[in-house]
Design a protein that fits this description.
The protein is α+β, with helices and mostly antiparallel strands. It is built from nine helices and seven strands, in the order H-H-E-H-H-H-H-E-H-E-H-E-E-E-E-H. The strands form two sheets. Strands 1, 2, 3, 4 and 5 form a five-stranded antiparallel beta sheet that branches. Helix 2 runs antiparallel to helix 7. The longest helix is centred in the middle third of the chain and has 19 residues. The protein binds flavin mononucleotide.
């Protein structure tokens, strides 16, 4: 599969078969994480891999109280003007627990968060550890797609992250990105329609936003009164 085919095929799957993902394939996917760019040359990633539905059920126990609320949320999220988004929510919200268990493979990707705490960044670069972790995660999603697998992740909400970190006895300074499930998609897996994007409309060369915050203007860009820096330094 060439790179652009992998990019096309990468979708968020929430319905899995129980076919097992081999250790060999898992290793390839985790290996892809270590090929991603990383701040400070660190790559301080650790992966807790949970196999078997019973074991997964124990690890995700802290999620159960929120799951009922998620199902109710479908009725509360009213973005009826956005059909694609509603179709996704209607499918996704009731599946948040089941989708983590069905394939029998749950991964908790941990990263080392140094300097300021994850939830108390002092400047944009404080988020570099988190950003690097997400670069690694995207590589894993693409590697999984390349192997004919589907993936989905649940982002911990409220106290879920702390509760799960406690279960796996995560040391101080380690955070996990998400609860990631990888597996062979079910035959009847549902995939919501993706938004149609016209790429050319999103590229604004030598342009600035106009004051309406919607349009772009090249004349405004060209009349910028900023002294340019030297390209030699
Ligand atoms: C930061 C982020 C958080 C997400 N959180 C969840 C989640 O908690 N549960 C879920 O089912 N999907 C989650 N998704 C998946 C999105 O719903 C999905 O990527 C989006 O609907 C586009 O569909 P596609 O991935 O098939 O292209 C998340 C995606 C991102 C990038």
């Amino acid at each position: 599969m060439d790179l652009y085919e992998v990019l096309e095929k990468r979708r968020t799957y929430r319905d899995f078969s129980d076919r097992e993902v081999s250790d060999e394939i898992l290793e390839k996917i985790v290996g892809a994480a270590f090929k991603a760019p990383t701040n400070d040359h660190l790559r301080q990633l650790e992966f807790i891999v949970v196999r078997g539905r019973e074991n997964i059920a124990k690890v995700i126990a802290p999620l159960s109280k929120n799951m009922a609320a998620f199902k109710e949320l479908v009725f509360e999220v009213d973005d009826s003007g956005d059909k694609d988004k509603m179709e996704m929510f209607t499918d996704a919200l009731p599946k948040q627990q089941k989708m983590l268990m069905d394939s029998g493979l749950l991964i908790l990707p941990f990263f080392r968060q140094k300097q300021s705490p994850l939830l108390k960044p002092v400047e944009q670069s404080s988020l570099n550890y988190f950003a690097s972790a997400w670069c690694a995660l995207e590589n894993m999603l693409l590697a999984a797609t390349h192997k004919g697998l589907g993936a989905v992740f649940h982002i911990p909400v409220s106290d879920e992250a702390d509760a799960i970190k406690k279960i796996v006895n995560a040391p101080e300074g380690y955070e996990f990105i998400c609860l990631l499930t990888i597996g062979y998609p079910a035959e009847n897996a549902f995939l919501p329609r993706q938004k149609e994007i016209h790429v050319k409309d999103r590229i604004h060369t030598n342009a600035c936003w106009t004051n309406d915050g919607v349009h772009f203007d090249t004349n405004a860009f060209l009349s910028l009164s900023v002294s340019p820096v030297s390209s030699n330094s």
